[in-house]
């Protein structure tokens, strides 16, 4: 290798743009717009390497360079055509329960093209190191097992940088977040921080109406609120969108038809009790570092005093839905305090007040979740590597950020038996 080539390598590594894969960039050579992508997907960058010239570098995925690429890449396709889907009440065993709806804030999006990224793994890690603490067939056993399995998706195997072409595929940790003290609130979520987040859409003459949130919890199922299954104005939930932080971002977006809506057997609107449901997707989701399931809350004892809510909802009362995924840290509130906030809610909606066994209250001044976040997750960091546990489903609340009014969430742990049987038999 010549000294001049070594100098080029040093120069290449010293001019990194510090951008992530999928970010927009500008080519210095001609000022044209580009997109940060792995070098192995960019033909023009590979041609430069062959000429001992180096492309503009955004960053690295492991040792694989991410370059500013001006090539046209990726095929686009329109959102899927909706199909007829049944409304299903799945049976529940002898657990006493009771239920809820809520006014939605609707964000409108015209039908646009979409692209789907396929998972790039060439081999899979050999199982999780986590030992399942649950007895087989006990409540929580299947959820813990699946949570450990989904945690393995964080590790992918990718080809090394072009400079090390003889090396074997390299293990890359694609975890998109670090466990940090829960001190943030009302801020933008970073890319890949919540890979389980789902937008729930409804068909309308103006295009897809994105009215609720949800959580991907398996290859084919999305967890959401019971009141999100059907919109009073637009009918049944029709689409699920995942892989995005900005609603219209199509770099790693996956749009999939919803073919079945499954409400809890004891959810009876307008009651606020048992406000939980599932959406079954037309096909399995393609897992990658942008799209990965969350865990169900298999251990109620793991719940602490703080949790994180995320969604594309309102940023303030009477405001507009955000087009960017937001996150907020909330404090869990006891039932007595919560009941005091909602004592004037009609008995038709809260006949027995806030019921702590099936509901969670959480909030902080100016930091509660808002109407557009309906169906979205209240989550905590799991002890399993790079996973969140969904402890609650956003149900209802007062106007956003008003005083110390908490929001109310359906407690996931209470419904574990029904969820596990519906998802995994």
Automatic annotation (TrEMBL):
- Regions of biased composition (Low complexity) lie at 103-114
Q: Residue ranges of the Clip domain? A: 24-69
Keyword Disulfide bond in annotation: yes
Domain of life of the organism in this record? Eukaryota
Keywords on record: Disulfide bond, Hydrolase, Protease, Secreted, Serine protease, Signal
Report the GO molecular function annotations.
serine-type peptidase activity
Record Gene3D superfamilies: Trypsin-like serine proteases (2.40.10.10)
Compartments in which it is found? Secreted
Annotated Basic and acidic residues bias: 115-124
Annotated GO biological processes are: proteolysis
Instruction: Describe the location of the Peptidase S1 domain by residue ranges.
Output: 183-424
Extract the ranges annotated as region (Disordered).
72-131
Q: Which residues form the signal peptide?
A: 1-18
Please give the GO cellular component terms listed in this UniProt entry. extracellular region
Main location per the UniProt record = secreted
Family recorded in the similarity comment: Belongs to the peptidase S1 family. CLIP subfamily.
What PANTHER family does the record tag this protein with? EG:BACR7A4.3 PROTEIN-RELATED (PTHR24260:SF147), PTHR24260
This chain's protein is named: Uncharacterized protein
High-level lineage? Eukaryota, Metazoa, Ecdysozoa, Arthropoda, Hexapoda
